[in-house]
Amino acid sequence: MGSNAIVEYTASDGVDVKLTPAIVARYIVTGSGEPSERDVYSFMMQCRARGLNPLAKDCYMTSYRNRDGSTSVSVIVSKDYFVRTATKQPDYDGCRAGVVVGVVAGPQKGEIVYREGCLVVPKRDRLLGGWAEVFSKNRTHPSRAEVSLEEYDQHRSLWKTKPATMIRKVALVQAIREAYPEQF
């Protein structure tokens, strides 16, 4: 493939997608690094194989410059894509998700609390992780995921400013993947 190569496919949302390395570089890649041609083609092929529409924000390609000067690339499939796909499943029956906090002050000091949503009270709570449950009409128990902030926080981008929102998203995506492994 050269720089003029085109990857064409119909995404899972029914939109006909045409990707070129120039489109990916200009409209999709974020971050401070410069992805290699191989990374760009790999991203384009992953989009086609999974039916993802990166122009509709189903997925992202992020490129970071490492301290040693090398570049690392991540392909991130959006939470919205997972939620949209899950809600299309005939047995989908909703979800719940939130954060796990350690209470460091007040009457609940020392307790671990599972809170729905993303509320972390400054000076009272320490964010520990996230949790989510996905309900299916065909199962007696929900698919549940619990994730540790320490394991996922890369101290980059939104993780610096919105860690509760980000860790809740990770938990929700994991629970959706477990609920519908054949879709993901």
Strand order of the largest sheet: 7-6-8-9
User: What is the number of helical segments per DSSP (H or I, 4+ residues)?
Assistant: 6
Helix content: 25-40%
Pattern of helices and strands = EEHEHEEHEEEEHHH
Mean pLDDT: 93
Question: What fraction of the residues are assigned to beta strands by DSSP?
Answer: 25-35%
Amino- and carboxy-terminal Cα gap = 28 Å
The chain-level structural class is alpha+beta
**Gyration radius, in Å:** 19 Å
**Major sheet size, sense and barrel closure:** 4 strands, antiparallel
Poorly predicted runs: none
* SS elements, strand count: 9
Overall form: flat
Q: Notable features of this structure?
A:
6 helices; single chain; 31% helix; four-stranded antiparallel sheet; 9 strands; 184 residues
What does this molecule look like?
This protein is an alpha+beta fold and 184 residues long. Strands 7-6-8-9 form a four-stranded antiparallel β-sheet. The two termini are 28 Å apart. Helices cover 31% and strands 32% of the residues. It contains six helices and nine strands, in the order ββαβαββαββββααα. The mean pLDDT is 93.
Write the layout of secondary structure elements.
Elements: E1 7-10, E2 16-19, H1 21-28, E3 29-30, H2 37-50, E4 59-65, E5 71-77, H3 79-87, E6 92-103, E7 112-116, E8 125-136, E9 143-148, H4 149-152, H5 157-161, H6 163-179
Parallel strand pairs: 3-4
Antiparallel strand pairs: 1-2, 4-5, 6-7, 6-8, 8-9
Helix pairs in contact: 3-6
